[in-house]
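From the pipeline queue, job 12 of 40. The input is one protein chain; the requested action is below.

Action: predict structure.
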Amino acid sequence: MRILKSDSRLIGVLLVLAITQLIGWGTIGLPAVVGRDLGADLGLSLPAVFAGSSVLYVTMGLCAPWLAKAFARHGARKVMMVGTIVSVPGYIVLFFARDPVLYFAGWVVLGMGGSATLSTGAYIMLNEVAGRGAKNAIGGLMLVTGLSSSIFWPTTSFLSAWLGWRGTCLVYAAMLLAINLPLYAFVAPRRKIATDDGGEAVRAAPPPAIPRSTFGLVVCVITMNAFVNFGIGAILIELLRAEGLAPAQALAFGSMLGVIQVSARGLDFLGGGRWDGITTGLVAGTALPVAMVLLMLSEGATWAVAVFILLYGAGSGAMAVARATIPLVFYDQAEFAKAMSMIALPLNLASAISPPLLAGLLTQFGSRGALGLTLAFSCATVLILILLGRRRPHLAAAAAT
């Protein structure tokens, strides 16, 4: 595997990002586990509680275009350090929240910090270090970060039972200061221009023009899949409870999801450079509608729930890699950061809308309402991926074979 042949600098940055992304994504998953406690304490309905995550994603998306200039000027390391410092007060605001205003204000602050530290910043840092090897590096990173729900959902459940959800917020703020910030400050490498085998700075030739319609399709496929994955991930425990599972069973099945997602990402990682993001997306994307139809028709049978978790986990895990790497099929290193910054706004808006909308459908119409919408989006995603496969640039198509 190519990534195992990389220098120690790349391995070091992968280790830093694995730990910090695991903590970053794991801690903001708070409402998925303690949503009912939050609602009861703050006088909010369940959809309103999940709207906190929506505020976070909207804020992340709105900050993305401005941060593109900061990433280009200062490099990912410095921007992610600042983002970590900004995130800490978000959890402190949540700790003191006694009404909806402070609750949503806390998520605004977390969104400002998350726009600098979560996913996009990590991919840009890998692109700074790995250059053309960014796809394999991103796949390697996702092998670890996919465990965030499996590690932090039980952790959040334990901490909230011991300290309450407010105390859990303080613990998570301390983790950002004691773990993430020092890793960025003292371990993450400073920006270095990627070089080719001869040691010369890479000067990319002007890439062939990509039609705007192709970019639009890329945005659509990434946005719709993000809607499905972030929405289902946020309401999964409640969805399984709506299917008739006991709370402990729902938590157990939900916690299995991360392990399955990581296993699926491992298949793409083992494929190395043989598969591009579109190929990964086509294979993985077909599993999602199959899983949803099965759960809709099963009437909550335990075996069907287990198969749903397996199929959905495998498909959504591999699709997360596809979302991050599809732009690499069409854009070279110089254009990748710009493309990702442009995609970040609609992606985060979809991620923001999805949890409260699906929670509302779940509350109003039961599991069939939420599953029906995500089924339609998943089918459309597969169709768009087929269209994108026909628009591959010649070099990308050759590399995928």
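Job complete. The chain is about 85% helix and 0% strand.
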